[in-house]
Specification:
The chain is mainly alpha-helical and 425 residues long. Helices cover 73% and strands 2% of the residues. It is built from 20 helices and two strands. It has a two-stranded antiparallel sheet with strand order 1-2. α8 (167-187) runs antiparallel to α9 and α15 (297-311) runs antiparallel to α16. The chain is elongated and about 90 Å long.
């Protein structure tokens, strides 16, 4: 008899759970149909049923719930009703985190931004949520606006004399936040404008506070305990790169980072530090290594272009080599053709023995500069100006005919080392 009762209870429980699952399925279908026609108001009831009874059903429950509750917030009749809905949204993030931990580790950041974005006057609460979320899950945070607002609130507390927010803490957080923005900018190109804006806003706040003297004092103090920490060194170099690259501490940090991790980035930091310290030959070596190690083709092209137009601008054979490499990795880098054409034109006297050869160099420069507008239409105006100038010194049709060079090929030697094939009559 006891066995029979036990089986009955188990069967009833299973049947009850099955029925519950069916109900959730029906309610899910119902609210999703309302959502498909953007009827958020009617979607709320069945959605709320599913959220309460089947909270682990799927992540879409929470993603759709955010839209539904945000509709309630946007259409609230008064501030009290609005805040009630915002608090409901915050609880939804709690529930989402509880049931899908790995999907929303930075849930406290979402909660903070729910308050901020919906203009709920709760600055201290926003700061505390951002502080908790960013401290525990910064590597998951993708909101540039959240990062900016956290730093803004942090610096306000420092300025207002909050003893828990020391100068060192502001620098420490700035270092981490700046590094996160750099990472997001590299890994989320679709959101580049957002991250660039956030970076500028953060730096605008930091500019007056984070002078080279302040940063130098901080990093010198922290170096001993972090000199084997590649991530810390990288973040520190990111902070100092724009305005403190000439300081001795930057060179020290760059050298240690490179020793721990050889990469395009570490080589670039080290090269920059060496250049700022007037160690030109060493700087060349590491700038070239940075370009060779770079994996992103667009960045690689830019680095070769920079080598050609900066470090090696007086070494014409090398400059040409790097310009051709930049074009190889980014065929749309029209400005590389512009610079190459100018190199040719500037060498007309040095690389020509006769007047015809000199004009031929300008002919080559003209043909080269025309490639710039083919690669990048934005350069059409610049190209037209160069063509006009080069054409004055270039071979005319009669020059080519008189020399009986129509349809023939000519080699220009010197460092240029290029062949020109003249058009037939």
């Amino acid at each position: 008899m006891r066995v029979f009762l036990l089986l009955t209870v188990l069967l009833f429980g299973l049947n009850s759970n099955a029925q519950k699952k069916i109900d959730c399925s029906l309610q899910t279908k119902e609210y999703q149909e309302f959502l498909s026609i953007k009827n958020f108001e009617e979607a709320f009831g069945p959605w709320e049923f599913v959220a309460k009874n089947c909270p682990t059903q799927s992540e879409s429950l929470y993603l759709e719930g955010v839209k539904i509750i945000q509709y309630k917030i946007d259409n609230a009749k008064n501030e009290e009703e609005k805040e009630t809905s915002v608090r409901q949204l915050m609880k939804l993030y709690d529930q989402y985190h509880k049931n899908f931990l790995n999907s929303i580790e930075d849930y406290e950041v979402y909660k903070a931004m729910a308050l901020f974005d919906n203009s709920i006057d709760s600055k201290d609460e926003v700061f505390q949520l951002l502080d908790n979320g960013i401290n525990s899950s910064l590597n998951k945070v993708t909101s540039g606006n959240a990062i900016f607002n956290y730093f803004k609130l942090l610096t306000e507390k420092n300025k207002n004399g909050d003893k828990s927010v020391t100068n060192d803490k502001v620098i420490e957080k700035y270092t981490l936040l700046n590094n996160r923005i750099v990472t997001l900018n590299e890994t989320n190109p679709a959101e580049k404008e957002t991250y660039v804006a956030a970076s500028r806003a953060i730096n605008a706040i930091a500019d007056n506070f984070l002078t080279c003297d302040v940063l130098t004092e901080y990093y010198e103090k922290k170096l001993a305990q972090n000199q084997e920490n590649a991530a810390w060194l990288e973040a520190s170099l990111n902070v100092m790169y724009e305005k403190c690259a000439a300081t001795p501490i930057f060179l020290t940090l760059a050298e240690k980072y490179y020793a721990l991790k050889v990469s395009a980035q570490s080589a670039n930091y080290f090269a920059t530090a060496l250049l700022k310290n007037r160690k030109f030959d060493e700087a060349k070596k590491y700038f070239l290594e940075s370009a060779n190690l770079e994996k992103n083709t667009s960045s690689k092209a830019t680095k070769y272009y920079t080598l050609a137009t900066g470090i090696y601008s007086n070494d014409k054979p090398k400059a040409k080599e790097f310009l051709l490499k930049s074009i190889e990795f980014n065929p749309k880098l029209g400005k590389a053709y512009l610079f190459l054409a100018q190199l040719y034109a500037n060498s007309a006297s040095d690389c020509a023995k006769t007047d015809f050869e000199k004009k031929a160099v300008y002919y080559l420069a003209t043909q080269t500069v025309k490639k710039a507008s083919v690669a990048d239409e934005v350069l059409k105006t610049n190209v037209a100006m160069f063509v006009k100038d080069f054409s004055k010194e270039s071979l005319s049709e009669s020059d080519i005919s008189n020399a009986k060079m129509n349809g023939k090929t000519m080699t220009i030697g010197c460092w240029i080392n290029e062949k020109i094939t003249f058009p037939s009559k």
